[in-house]
Each structure stands twice: as C-alpha cells, then as structure tokens.
Design a protein that fits this description.
Oligomer: single chain
Number of helices: 13
Strand content: 25-35%
Helix content: 25-40%
Number of strands: 23
Bound molecules: glycyl-adenosine-5'-phosphate
Strand order of the largest sheet: 3-9-10-16-13-12-11
Radius of gyration: 25 Å
Low-confidence stretches: none
Largest sheet: 7 strands, mixed
Length: 440
C-alpha cells in the first residue's frame, strides 16, 4: 500500500478545496490556514459529531459559547500569564529562534550551521496580546484565549444556577484558540489559530478517580464511532516533567500521523485548581452547595480537550488511500458518512436526451435530505474518481432506464459496488448504509 505522506494530504487539500494557506496571494502567514468549501463542511461535521456525542448522547452535559476576549485577570488567575511559556533560544548569528527543548543546544544552529551560537534559554509566553479601547497600556491589555476551558470555568456558577445543573455535570464548548507557536511546521497540526472541542466535567472531590478513567474510555471510544482505525490510536500518560502546571494526572490520545505518533487530544485531571484560582482572584465564591447533603465544596474538574483542526488533519490522514485497482489506481478518502463533506453526488450518465435535466431535478430534491453535489462533466468513471477523492460515500447515477422506470444506481465508495434502487427509496437506503457503515 502506498505510503500516506503529509505532502500528499497538503496537495489534496489545496487541489480539492479543503484547506488553503491563509492570505496566500501575499505569501501566506505562518501558522494560519483557511478552510475551503469542502474543508469547512468536513470541519463542521466533525464538530457536530463531537457536539452530538458530548451534549446529546451523554447525560448532564450542556454547551456554552464564551467570548474569545476575556478580562485579563482570567489569565492571571489561570496561571497562563506566568506559566504558559516555552523555553526559547536565539541564534546570535542568524537570529533564528528555536524551542530549547527541541534542539541540541551544543550542536550547530539548524538554520545557519554555526556552533556555540545560541543565547541562554528564555521563557517565551505563547499568548497573543492585544489592547481593547483607544490606548495601548497595561490597563487595556487583553489576550486572545489560548484555550477555551477558562471561558467554561468562569461561567460555572452562571450555568449551575440558570440551568439548575447538579454536580456531577459537564459543560462543553467548541471555539477558536490562539497560541504564538514558534514551530508551526506540519501543516495544520500545530497552528497559531486553531479550534478546540473541550468538555469540563465538574465532580465531587475524590470522585475524580472514578471519572478520570471513565472519560478516558469514552473519548477513545468516540474515535471508533467516527470510523478511525483504532490501531492508529494509543494512550500516552504524562510523566512528571510533562504535566501541565494545572494537572494532577494527564493522558494524551495519540494518533499515528504521517509524521509519527503525536497528540490528538488530552484528558486531564485538573483537580480544584482552576475554580480555586478564580475564587482567589475574583473574590467570588466558586463553591457548589450540594442540595441533597448540604455539603459545600469546590468541584474537581476532569477535562477532555481535543483539537478540532488537528482532528481534521487526523481524519484526512486516516481516510486517505491510494488504491491499486485491476486496471487503474484511485485516491479514495474512506471518510465516515457522518462527516463526509458531500454525502450524495448525482451524476447523469450522459448530458443529452433529458438525463441531465432529470438528474439536476433529482439533486435539487435530495438537497432537503443531504449535502449533495451534481457533476455532469467528463466520463462517468472520471466523475466517480473525483467523488472518491473527496470521500463522497454515495453516487447516484441517472441513466436511460431511469427515464422509464424511476430507478437509479447507487454506488458505494469503499466497495465500488452498485445496485439498482427506486428513486423514492434513496433517503432510506442512504440512512441504512450510514447506520451500517464499517470501514472497508
Ligand atoms: N485546556 C487544555 C488544553 O488546552 P492542550 O493539551 O494544550 O490542553 C488540547 O491542548 C488540544 O488542543 C491538543 O491535544 C491539540 O489537539 C489542540 N492544540 C493545542 N495546541 C494546538 C495548536 N497550536 N494547533 C492546533 N491544535 C492545537
């Protein structure tokens, strides 16, 4: 089987309109990307699949959407202002900057090759700083949030009282985060602007020992539901030197990306660190009063924190295959139908004899059920290949028999099998195939 490389994924993304470099006509911007027509559908579908899993399938999880800009006290309380740093060194000769933990400080500069040219490591804060209002001074400083989690913590009491939630319960959020990452290679894997899907589970102190393994299991199972190859996923427990400043214990779900095993999602036992800090800095009571037992305590938090944009790269890498067929090769994305950017493509066998008009009308009718595409240009085999390459699970072909008996062929992307069905059965057939989907 041909190797899946990052270059192949990047090229497919550009060619077919999944992902483009940001502001490309000006030479791009490091660590920033734009999602094209297919990319935004894929990203939104992964987001919706996660949202449904967390807020609909699981008990007692509600959603919020907090603003990106927050009172800067939040980041002092959370520890990000003082601790969210990477150790950096500069090359004194070429002025290139590197993460001190990613290079040999006694070796040559990876950029210019000079030896002994590095400055002593200095801590570099990853938060982007800006100002709110007309003056740029300390009082107007705001940060672009580096994680969505804090927006959840500061709303803990609002949610408890307004939604009458009882501990244990969770708050979920999806949104943009920003980090001034110095090493942004590997496409969208590590970018300066990215999206996170986070869920914070508030529980009674001591019960975190039960919920932490529960959420680890749930989160790994989620990727199975999304059709990911489970042998490409594994756990990595953080050692004492890797643990974030807020965590008592932490596990990463790692995925076997084209560049090797890398973190996809983190599950963290954050204890009562965050709410205690916010109580201290805001002077507001962040404790919870159990209405049954009258016990008052600051809840512990088990966090599940996944990168949405990193999930996009994972899903594309996982789905990508160059398949050798008897008389041809094809690029196919084995995307789970629930997240495929286009669900059904309608293809008239010929343009002439009324087939195109019939197919176009059918495609319009099907829009009420699925995201559809209509393609009339080129040989039918070429059109199937174009749909395979973007992961469209079902192609509906309108041919001469269709005009007589209102039947079409449905072609399944992974097996390439075709069968004849009645037009009115298309929605039910697609729903059945979706429900039974197993990656070939
Ligand atoms: N609230 C906890 C938190 O933010 P994290 O391990 O720093 O934890 C969680 O980030 C997830 O966010 C990562 O597993 C990754 O998927 C994603 N992520 C973090 N930094 C990223 C970046 N620069 N670009 C893309 N995704 C990133």
């Amino acid at each position: 089987m041909a190797e899946v490389t990052l270059d192949k994924i990047v090229s497919l993304c550009k060619r077919r309109g999944f992902i483009f470099p940001s502001s490309e006509i000006y030479g791009g911007l490091n660590g920033a990307y734009d999602y094209g027509p297919l990319g935004v559908n894929l990203k939104n579908n992964i987001r919706d699949f996660w949202w449904r899993e967390m807020t609909q399938i699981h008990d007692d999880i509600v959603g919020i959407d907090a603003s990106i800009l927050m009172n800067s006290q939040v980041w002092k309380a959370s520890g990000h202002v003082s601790n969210f740093t990477d150790p950096m060194v500069d090359c004194k000769v070429c002025h290139a900057r590197f993460r001190a933990d990613q290079i040999d400080l006694n070796g040559p500069c990876p950029n210019c090759g000079n030896k002994g040219s590095f400055t002593a490591p200095r801590n570099f804060n990853l938060m982007f700083v800006t100002h709110i209002g007309p003056t740029a001074d300390d009082a107007s400083t705001v940060y672009l949030r580096p994680e969505t989690a804090q927006g959840i913590y500061v709303n803990f009491k609002n949610v408890v009282t307004s939604a009458r939630m009882k501990v244990p319960f969770g708050i979920a959020q999806v949104g943009k985060s920003f980090r001034n990452e110095i090493t942004t290679k590997n496409f969208i894997f590590r970018s300066c602007e990215f999206e996170q899907m986070e869920m914070q589970w508030f529980c009674k102190p001591g019960t975190d020992d039960k919920w932490f393994p529960y959420w680890r299991e749930q989160r790994m199972a989620f990727y199975g539901k999304m059709g990911i190859q489970m042998d490409h996923l594994r756990w990595h427990q953080h050692g004492p030197d890797e643990l974030a400043f807020y965590a008592k214990d932490a596990y990463d779900i790692q995925y076997l990306f084209p560049m090797g095993w890398q973190e996809l999602e983190g599950v963290h036992d954050r204890t009562d660190y965050d709410l205690t800090q916010h109580q201290k800095f805001s002077g507001k009571d962040m404790s919870y009063l159990d209405p049954m037992t009258n016990e008052k305590y600051i809840p512990y938090i088990v966090e599940t924190s996944a990168g949405l944009t990193r999930n996009v790269l994972m899903v594309l890498s996982d789905a990508y295959e160059e398949q050798q067929l008897a008389d041809d090769t094809r690029v196919v994305l084995h995307l789970h139908p629930a997240i495929a950017p286009i669900k059904v493509a309608v293809l008239p066998l010929q343009k002439k004899d009324g087939l195109a008009e019939f197919a176009s009308k059918l495609e319009h009718d099907l829009r009420h059920y699925f995201v559809t595409d209509y393609d009339v240009s080129g040989a039918i085999g070429r059109r199937y290949r174009r749909q395979d390459e973007v992961g469209t699970p079902y192609c509906i072909t309108v041919d001469y028999d269709t005009l007589n008996d209102n039947t079409v062929t449905i072609r399944y992307r992974d097996s390439m099998e075709q069968k004849r069905i009645k037009i009115q059965d298309i929605p039910a057939e697609v729903a059945k195939a979706d429900a039974e989907y197993k990656r070939a």
